[in-house]
Amino acid sequence: NASSQSILVCLTLLSTSSFLMCYFIVWMTSEQNPQFWNAKGKEALVTALSLKHNFHLAKNLILFLGDGECMGVSTVTATRILKGQLEGKPGEETVLTMDTFPNLALSKTYNVNMQMPDSAATATAYLCGVKATYGQCSTEKNNEVHSVLHRARAAGKSVGIVTTTRVQQNERNWYSDAAQPADALAGGCKDIAYQLVHNTDINVILGGGRQYMLPNNVTDPEYAKQTGDRLDNTNLIDEWLKNKKNAKYVWNKAQLDAVDEDTTEYLMGLFEPKDTRYELERNAETDPSLTEMVEKAIKILSKNPKGFYLFVEDKIDHGHHASEAKKALYEAVEFDRAIARAGELTSERDTMSVVTADHSHVFSFGSSSPRGNPVLGLSTKIGTDKKYFTTALYGNGPGFAIDSNGTRPDININITSATGYAQQSAVPLSSETHGSEDVAIFAKGPMSHLFHGVQEQSYIAHAMAYAACIDPYTECNLEPAPEPNHAAPIQLSAGMLLLALLTFINLI
Ligand SMILES: *[C@@H]1O[C@H](CO)[C@@H](O)[C@H](O)[C@H]1NC(C)=O
Ligand SMILES: *[C@@H]1O[C@H](CO)[C@@H](O)[C@H](O)[C@H]1NC(C)=O
Ligand SMILES: *[C@@H]1O[C@H](CO)[C@@H](O)[C@H](O)[C@H]1NC(C)=O
Fold first, then answer.
1. CA distance 87 to 97
2. Per the annotation, does 313 bind a ligand?
3. Where is the active site (predicted)?
């Protein structure tokens, strides 16, 4: 059988190669075979036994923020299965890049005055380390708090923001001065586009949101019928470029590809007037993917010998608000791909990477379904109304579909897997709401073991600041990781060897 064949292959390999290869071949064989799960369990045990905390100083910090439940656990599971199914596999066994991060915690996302959080107050928590009230950013007069990004810049690191939303994304919608209420303008409160250009000296800004940077009589470079948004006749792109050395502005993929990372210190890329397109609808000729933006950002930022701070955000949130699970989940698969690319361009030795979400959504994933059931498919069980339903559903939202006769529409896989299909929900709402449950935090790299247990969301900023020893944690007693010694052979601990041997004997 397959198992004994693989043991034979293993025996041959054993004389020439490592135990690990041997493991790989054995557990590839068959899930029906108990040996498969025993070998897999032992392999995971070997990994767990060899885990060592990295007590070094984090030179670089990367925060990946799946806007809206990417790390809500139901979205993580559905994303993992979709990733596998896109590769032609059943899907459940697939491993996301974030799944490989060794340290995990849960983040309590509530706001000071709200059980269900919003994006502005949660941003104040995970970026600045202070919980806020619903809709509150860090700009309240006499109550200012500074983000880890700002503090990292003050410590001499390069800093960047990469997002698939507009770069001025905020819950108050003050994207430009045109969107601000009169009292806010009179009070001297600046719109987010203005703040983005004037507050912190940011090295790399990539995302959407061109129209909020341009005056309302300036035509958009990509869409001749559109103009900028600003009433103050200020071109914030020109202002940003002014007084900067080796600075570039780009607005399409070809221009981004042409940017020479080695000679560029500052890069602003704005690829759409508002948000960038969903990954599912992106024009790969004209618009960069999140992964491509992350790659360019890291190559520019990592030239700084003092390290960098990078904030990466994906608009998974928007797909969920529309109750379109397909858009949200394809977005989340791309988000995971960007995390993988960042992992290739950095080292776990000196880079702390943290993956989390600002809040969850009322997205649920379940009901009777066989192994490999399409993520956007149907439950094998039908409702008491004798109609099919999808395994992905929303508690509320625009997918409410009970007609005036009190019946639901009949659906099939072709309908539910089409782009633009909104999964059904129990309560009609024009926009599906956030969820209130905890979201996961995945972490790897120096001091990533600080992410453990159940934590307040505001702890994220504290743990990241401590790991990099930046304000207010300047007495952290952490040494930089030593340079890797490329000549060092792979060290197998005695425990690992013993386990490998036991497993092998067991299999024979
Ligand atoms: C936009 O309007 C301002 C103020 O009237 C003017 O100075 C500027 O030249 C105009 N720009 C364009 C591109 O028309
Ligand atoms: C409700 O039921 C009636 C009678 O079967 C049918 O004519 C009508 O089209 C139904 N309405 C909707 C909205 O489906
Ligand atoms: C879905 O579409 C395919 C291809 O057009 C068709 O063969 C199949 O019968 C359809 N399934 C349902 C349930 O309508």
1. 15
2. yes
3. 119 (phosphoserine intermediate)
Domains of the chain, start order:
2-53+495-507 (no CATH), 60-363+434-468 (3.40.720.10)
Q: HEC profile for 273-312?
A: CCCCCCHHHCCCCCCCCHHHHHHHHHHHHCCCCCCEEEEE
Residues 17-75: tens digit of each pLDDT:
566 665 555 545 689 999 999 999 999 999 999 999 999 999 999 999 987 545 689 99
pLDDT, tens only, 144-195:
678 999 999 999 999 999 998 877 765 556 677 777 766 666 656 677 888 8
The per-residue pLDDT for 258 is 98
Q: How far apart are CA 466 and CA 478, in angstroms?
A: 9
* Rounded Cα–Cα distance for residues 343 and 312 (Å): 13
- How many Cα neighbours within 13 Å face the side chain of 418? 8
Longest dimension (CA), the chain: 79
> Which DSSP string do the residues of 74-122 spell out, in sequence order?
HHHHHHHHHHHHHTTS-STT---TGGG-SEEEEEE---SS-SS--HHHH
Residue whose C-alpha is closest to residue 384's, from 415, 354, 406, 412: 406
Which atom, in ligand 2's list, is nearest to the CA of 405? Answer: 1
- What digits encode the pLDDT tens for the residues 317-331? 778 888 999 999 999
Task: Among 387, 400, 405, 407, say which to mutate for ligand 2: greatest number of ligand atoms within 8 Å of CB.
Answer: 405
Atom 3 of ligand 2 has which residue's CA nearest to it?
405
From atom 14 of ligand 1, which residue's Cα is the shortest distance away? 217
Task: Report which ligand 3 atom has the smallest distance to the Cα of 414.
Answer: 1
Ligand 3: centre distance to CA 92 (Å): 24
Q: Measuring CA to CA, which residue among 270, 261, 262 is closest to residue 238?
A: 270
Residue 196, token pair as written in the block: 């983005």
> Is 358 within 8 Å of 65 (Cβ atoms)?
yes
Element (H, E) at 206: strand 204-208
